[in-house]
Design goal:
Layout lengths: L1 H16 L10 H16 L18 E4 L2 E4 L4 H13 L6 H30 L6 H10 L3 H4 L6 H16 L4 H14 L4 H10 L4 H23 L13 H7 L11 H9 L5 H4 L2 H7 L1 H7 L2 H18 L20 H7 L8 H17 L12 H11 L13 H16 L5 H19 L4 H14 L16 H8 L10
Antiparallel strand pairs: 1-2
Length: 494
Amino acid sequence: MKRAALTVVLFAILSLLVIPLYPHFVSPNEFARWALAVALVEHHTTELTQVATILGPRFEDLSTIDGRLYSNKAPGATLVGTMGYVLARPFTTSIRPLLTAMRLVASTLPLILLALLMITLAKRLGHEDRAPLVVAALLFGTPLFAYGLLLFAHALVAAALFAAWAFLFIDDRPLLAGALIGIAVFSEYPAAVPALVLLIVAWNRVLKVIAGGLPFAIALAAYHYISFGSIFRLPYGNDQYGAFRELSRSGIYGIEFPSLLTALKFFFDPGFGLFVLSPVLILAVLALVNAKRKLAPRAFAAFILTPLSMIVVYSGYPNWQGGWSVGPRYVMPIVPFLTFALVFRKRDWIEPLLLGFSVAAVGLITLTFPFVPVEFSIPWGTLSLPLLRDGLVAPNLLHLVWHPAALVVPFVLVAFAVMLDRRWWLTVLGGATAIGIGFLAAAHPSPRERIERAYIEDVYFERRGTLERVMPPGAPIFRRRDAERKLPPSSWPF
């Protein structure tokens, strides 16, 4: 248990050290939430019209309703993060520390609490010895590593849904489970589907679960009424960004009939596939046979059906990648279930090998630039390793002190966290394999990959002139670059 707890502590330290807010990169998911927090705290409104000018004309994640601008996100993660904003606001008005404070409360803290819950559950189920591997995989070997350091809703929703399962079927606390379900739906509308699955499987306690979630349902209804004039009106379908607006007009707000091909892409796509980035989770699927023997029938049914419902829903969404991101971000709530399934496996030599591969792949992306453009395959090789070669890593506090330390220390913390096991040499071998594959992929980048990487270096890492080396003078992309250079956040001393 001490090793598992130390892993959590190392993740917490890393989360305070790394501040992945890049100069002039107005991350849509994050800044839509920051803008709503600004509107709520500074202007006492949910309308973003006053704040939107800061975000630039190309900002995507806004909705236009009755001539006014609003965030197109469910409000839950923002409202949780606003606690961080309020705590930091007396000390600064700068975007970077305020958004970071929001992220620490709404993303990092839920992921840490999820890891601690998994340690407790592993002990309760008699698999205390499995906790270090499970926690290391969760925090450093899956895309949740990235989303615990970003102001997205995915870490919060993933933690809430898994904890709701645990408090329904392992530890009988239906009111708390209902509150967690409420938080999940309050933070991502499609979480209503796995929420319904949990309600159906826990039918004998459904009234208590509903009672626990009722305050969040009322809060969501109030937000809709205040913002949009009706509790049933959603921001979807009114997107300011034309492509999103058109997409949301098909099916149910863009979600169509499930597609087996899309479901397979969630796991095997070379750029975003979960098993490509985190092959340690393949072992989790194999462990489900053991999980069935260990869990009560309804607990196991919910353990399978809750994540499966997310896969089915989002397999009908054409924009399944979710734009620039790490892995298939919309289905991140399945990751805690897959990761926890490793508890039910017997220890063997393949685990540390695949854990090392997963940590190297996910860690390289997370600690360099965790916004992978859709054009990249094997992104830890085609994007992350070239950035690292050029001396570029995600903004971290050590950039303010000593550049070499900024390059090395974050990776050392990750390596130490996953090499606490005495089979550390297998972990190193797995990581070396991932890096080797990455170098092979980096040796033959596509023209589009070269252009996107040059743009990222030129604008978001402020390596001026990088784009000129791969594009002819006068190309339209230079106009986009010149416009983005005027946007927040401010410069960083890379």
